[in-house]
Amino acid sequence: MEPNEPDGLQHYVTLSEEPTIFEPMSSVNSIFTLRSRGIMGVNVKSPDASRPSLNFRIEDHGEVLCIKFSPDSRVLAIQRTPHSIDFLNFSNGSPISSEYSHTCKGKKIKLLGFVWTTSTEILLVTTESLELYQTAGTITKICKFSLPSNLALDNAQPDTVSAVLQNSCLLACIDGLVKLTDELLVETNGQFAISVVDNVVLVHCRNERVTCVYDLAFGGHVHDGISKHRPVFPPESIGPLTLASNTVPALSSNLNAKIPVELYSAHWITNLPSVVIDGNLGCLWTLKLNNKLIPMLIRKRSHVVDFLVNREDGKRILLDYCTTLYNQSVSEALSYEASDFDGDYSFHADGLNQRLDDFAYIFK
């Protein structure tokens, strides 16, 4: 895959350069490729190139509705019915135990889905509640989130997502009767998807084909106990890219061509925290952030510092940013104007004072 940046334009949010290629989705396969409901083999591919593909078999206990590995690939969760979920422990890519199960309490309660929040914790989404469990060979319930009944009925639609931000497990909900802590202000309508990369919340707007960037750690305006957040900078599109037709089977009919990828496609599926899947092409990417662009995207220098200090690569970028400010300060200090009449020199201190204020904020 190759980025396609016209006229040198760079984008803050991009897709990973090397996608994971898989057989395009159909009625019988997904990213996990199962044959005969797993008894004839399961093939698993990871977006992390350093992790090899896995091939193993599971017992046939019925049609597989959903299947997900924990982040460390040590526990496999399998949903076969609307009322229960099965688990299988792994070591070195192979099963090492018999399956163990968890069943929803109550005949009317249905399991709508599940999300791994850490390598040992899994969040179960039911028609009645959100339940967080810990897996370690057995299932241990550690807490429960209650939902109003009207919201639970609407949960058949993807109106809630969970995510780990600043080492806390949080729930994001659309128009729900829940206790709000943070509100993201999105100035557009239509379908949305949410990703989380490096503690940054990305809201993808399909109709507008743009992504809004939010950082809950700064910039929020508190009103009635709720922190309201606007995008850190104006919404922009994910960086354009092209795929070589000879690397993607779904594009093989286009001989030796570079095919632009349709961004925000109707075939896109986003999985938290940062996975984007195009089921029609058979490609899986992870989202990347180009934090080097932040000093150009955020005009207020204090906000540049507040944003970068919470990023994994922020310290290195802040050092480069400080170097730039230092060079500008030296230039300001050496700037003066000679009078045409008496030969005196005048010095404009406003620019230098502004630079000194910037340094004072950075190193406070």
Automatic annotation (TrEMBL):
One of its GO terms (cellular component) is lysosomal membrane. Residues 29-135 form the Regulator of MON1-CCZ1 complex N-terminal domain. It holds the Pfam family RMC1_N. InterPro entries: RMC1, RMC1_N, WD40_repeat_dom_sf. GO terms for biological process: regulation of autophagy. This is Regulator of MON1-CCZ1 complex N-terminal domain-containing protein. It comes from Opisthorchis viverrini (Southeast Asian liver fluke).
